[in-house]
Amino acid sequence: MTKETTDRFNSFLDVINVSEGFLKISKALDGFCNWYTSNADTIASCIEGFIDFGIWGSAIKKLEDKQIVFTDDITSELAKEIYDADDVDAIVEQYYFQNFEERMSLLIDRCQQSSQVIEYQNLYSQIISAYRMTHYHLACIGLFAMLDGILADISNLITTNYKKRLNIIERKLCDNIKLSEIDRRTLCIYSTIKSFDTSILCNSDLSGNEPNSLNRHWTLHGRAKREYSKYDFLKILLYIDAIIFLSNTIKKHEKSITV
User: Fold this and answer.
1) Which of 188, 146, 180, 186 is nearest to 256 (CA)?
2) Buried b vs exposed e over 190-201: b needs ≥16 C-beta within 10 Å?
3) Virtual CA dihedral for 234, 235, 237, 240, nearest 10 degrees?
4) Fewer Cβ neighbours under 10 Å: the N or C end of the chain?
5) Helices (H), 74-183
6) What's the average model confidence in pLDDT over 58-87?
């Protein structure tokens, strides 16, 4: 691997602000230098998938600020569109709700067919019914409740502390996935989801003013008086889809290790 490629890879990690969890993965690999050299082609191929690291990283940050964890692959073209956009929400809404909500329907079906949601089929069916009847407030309450159950199942923690549950998922990722197996989609999902414990999932002072942004604490405690939209519903469903994706990633690599 050339020094230029190495520098570009290191710059890539810096630009997208990879969390400590992913850095632990690389540090935990035995003989990291040998691995780095032997996987030069794979790493270079991954790098070449990004036209501009700065644009991609900035696009991820703009999505994060809007409480969006994008679970489809963010191509270079889409990253550029988000980067240039004055209204990121409009880009995301168009992506999921255009063409008779085709991608939204795919997202709903993908979650419904997952092993994590199958355990909650009765609840999920009623959630989707509420969504289709435009009862978005009720649908969002249902999604947050289901999310609580899914995180408990994945983390094996009965505590309602979201940060502790996410830390369990992070540790499982660090234990089971190699840096060479981390693709663009995984990086996007993981780096965005880590910010949600200070955003969509953070505890908020219920004696203060209700936040303008979506907040699980206010919603599930019945204190929210804001109007909910199908865009709010999309945000929570994407978060659930992201948790499912990370859980399946862990399972896949656990299985490959034991075989």
Assistant:
1) 180
2) bbbbbbbbebbb
3) 170
4) C
5) 76-84, 88-113, 115-118, 121-132, 136-155, 162-176
6) 91
| 40 vs 55: CA distance, rounded Å | 24
List of E strands, 62-197: none
Task: Choose among 131, 155, 114: nearest CA to 241.
Answer: 114
The Cα–Cα gap between 216 and 220 comes to 6
The whole-number pLDDT of residue 253 equals 62
Give CA–CA dist 247/173, Å, rounded.
9
- Phi first, then psi, for residue 51 (nearest 5°) are -70, -40
Task: Compute the C-alpha angle 112/113/115, nearest 5°.
Answer: 105
pLDDT in tens, 150-164: 988 887 766 555 566
Question: What is the amino acid identity at position 211?
Answer: P
Nearest 5°: CA angle at 107, between 101 and 108?
90
Contact call for residues 213 and 200 (beta carbons, < 8 A): yes
Find out whether 201 and 162 touch, Cβ atoms under 8 Å: yes
Mean pLDDT value of segment 114-119 = 95
